[in-house]
Write a structure and sequence with these properties.
327 residues; five-stranded antiparallel β-sheet; 6 helices
């Protein structure tokens, strides 16, 4: 089952069920007005939403064409947006880019930060360029949307709390990061609004690609009209979503409607390409030797980025994030 949120002039939009081919949807207001409402009453709403999805797929209810520009993020605002950094190759590269060493517990203790969740971008919403000097970058990620998570949840029990999966473009202002982290208090201004994919999918939609708390599919990244990444989101995710959930729930509970991110999908094999510009820039520095400078600029007005993930049949599981940078 896949769900979407239609823009209707309200803050939280209107929940809809998406047809299997992703070309049509039907509002689900008679079951739950919003995705948050459905998450709050998941045991009651899930079977009803699945029945509506089955009717839509069978042609027993009339759907309307999907208009991606009229879709919010699945959760237009979330109770919490917690982002990890589970792909350690990315951590090592970007740390080298700013002359910082990875923490000694890199492989045993997940890195996480809490992003802004009150204003989230839809899949076709533009990316505002406040100041080119800030170093605007995209970051392709996989995310899970959670149900209620008790404090102390263990990785072995984490699967029961995963309701949906989606993609994210976790926009970063790279040139603001070093000074913020030097204060020892984490990201804030360097992390503007994150964008999310058109559809959120239940884990069974991924079939065997969802296993061990990871999505074993490629994240396709297109930038400035060229494919720049075909990055595997599975084997090199050092900490699974189950591991991340155990980590963040160590001292606190989470409410339904919390989003948990994987961090930038990243592979050691350069042939896989990139999911963010910072990695390309770091590779250029390394290849240039001592005193080398990156050739790739950060994003500018008019640039476009697209993020998508296909299943084994070629179906776009989460729909495509397609954004343009605007002044």
């Amino acid at each position: 089952m896949r769900l979407a949120t239609m823009k209707d002039g309200t803050r939280d939009g209107r929940l809809a069920v998406v047809r299997h081919d992703g070309a049509a949807l039907v509002p689900a207001g008679r079951i739950a007005r919003t995705l948050q409402e459905a998450l709050d009453a998941w045991d009651r709403c899930e079977p009803l939403l699945r029945a509506l999805a089955a009717d839509l797929d069978a042609g027993e209810v009339a759907g309307e064409p999907v208009a991606f520009e009229r879709l919010h993020a699945p959760l237009p605002r979330a109770y919490e947006w917690v982002d990890g950094s589970a792909f350690l190759h990315h951590v090592r590269l970007v740390r080298r880019a700013r002359g910082a060493e990875p923490p000694p517990t890199l492989e045993t203790d997940p890195l996480v930060y809490q992003g802004g969740s009150g204003v989230l971008l839809g899949p076709r919403d533009p990316i505002p360029l406040v100041d080119a000097a800030y170093g605007l970058d995209f970051e392709g990620e996989v995310c899970v949307i959670l149900g209620d998570v008790p404090q102390g949840t263990r990785a072995a029990d984490a699967a029961r709390h995963v309701r949906l999966l989606c993609l994210a473009n976790d926009v970063t202002l790279r040139n603001l990061v070093p000074d913020e982290l030097a204060k020892g208090f984490g990201f804030f201004q360097s992390k503007p609004a994150t964008a999310f994919s058109p559809f959120a999918a239940t884990p069974d939609e991924l079939g065997g690609a969802w296993r061990d708390g990871r999505v074993h599919l490629d994240l396709l990244v297109t930038y400035a009209g060229a494919r720049v990444g075909t990055c595997s989101a599975g084997p090199e995710m050092h900490f699974s979503f189950f591991d991340l959930l155990q980590h963040v729930a160590r001292t606190r509970a989470f409410t339904a409607g919390t989003i948990l991110g994987s961090g930038t999908v990243s592979n050691a094999d350069r042939a896989r390409g990139i999911s963010c510009l910072a990695e390309r820039r770091m590779i250029e520095i390394l290849d240039g030797g001592p005193g080398g400078n990156p050739r790739t600029p950060f994003m500018k007005a008019g640039d476009r980025v697209e993020l998508e993930m296909l299943d084994a049949s070629g179906r776009s599981i989460f729909g495509k994030i397609a954004q343009e940078v605007v002044p």
